[in-house]
Amino acid sequence: MNGADSEVQAILRRTRDKGKGAVYCVAGAGNGGLPMAGHLGIMGFEVRLYNRTEEHLAGVRWHGGIEVTGAVTGFGPVALATSNMAEALAGADVVMVVTPSTAHRSLAQAMAPHLADGQVVVLNPGRTGGALEFCKALADSGMTSRPVIAEAQTFLYASRAMSRHHGHIFRIKNGVPLASLPSYWTPAVLEALEPAFPRFTGGSNVLATSMENIGAIFHPALTILNAGWIEATGGDFDYYLQGITPAIALMLEKMDAERLAVARSLGVRTVSAREWLYLSYDSPGKSLEEAIHNTASYKGIKAPSTIAHRYIFEDVPMSLVPIASIGAMLGVETPSIDMIIDLASILHSTDYRAQGRTVERLGIAGLSIKAIHNLVNGGTP
Description:
Helices cover 46% and strands 15% of the residues. The protein is an alpha/beta fold.
């Protein structure tokens, strides 16, 4: 460990030692960020809430915090609600990014001038390749400080924003893998986060957390294949429990098999979607369809009211496109995933391959598998 690494390690230890005295900035005041910020306030942490749209913060400012209901109940004070990035980041020990992954690159560019050495930035979640894209965007912006960037494999909460100052948490997942880039910071990051988020567990590296992006399997195809029902009813049906029929479950299993094949080609060990449901929600099942229908937390979650939804415009370019792009670079065919990307592009009149996270935008184009692993584990391409 060199001198710069030792300095960052010391900062991470200080964050850990602060315990509930650590200062959290939550970037994003939507369905995820609002409940997370409220929960942090309830737990006693000092919370800053950042949102680029000023008017979305008015309710939190008026009430002085966030009401939380569901699996967590109470009122979480928020010390600062701001649309000023420099103000939000100044003095924060941990930055929890809880926005659509389509915003990750622009957020990195906005944060680059203000991030400090040893400041922890966690993408909740990274989707596929989030930490890689975020770090490349920071580097492209000329950042000279050394923050620690990490990504969660999925979002820790099943939650919704009920109003501008009220978040509802349906459930907190049993455990969510998290990894830093490079991976040797992961243990120290987990220790720093443990007082607030003990359910984060160690992921081997960001390739593993990215390739275990189950939203890539559950969201786009399920929305597209139920497009007629969504448009006819405005989404008035249980998205998972009614929307996943035997035929649709078969398509999801095909896509999941392709995801696993791309992961194997990268030398990454990951779990199937069916296994993930058991690990996250204690949902048993001999098939993916059976496991989904045994997931009590999915009961009552309605389908999107329109197909103009982030399950397509976020999850296709930020989840499926990078899987397909990595597969193409490594010679792994992904016909089912490619079909869903094509259908999404047709339905939205958008070239999602041109917009999405390709290997070029992840900074790994042309790299050997050994070089990719050296990048994510050691920090050097």
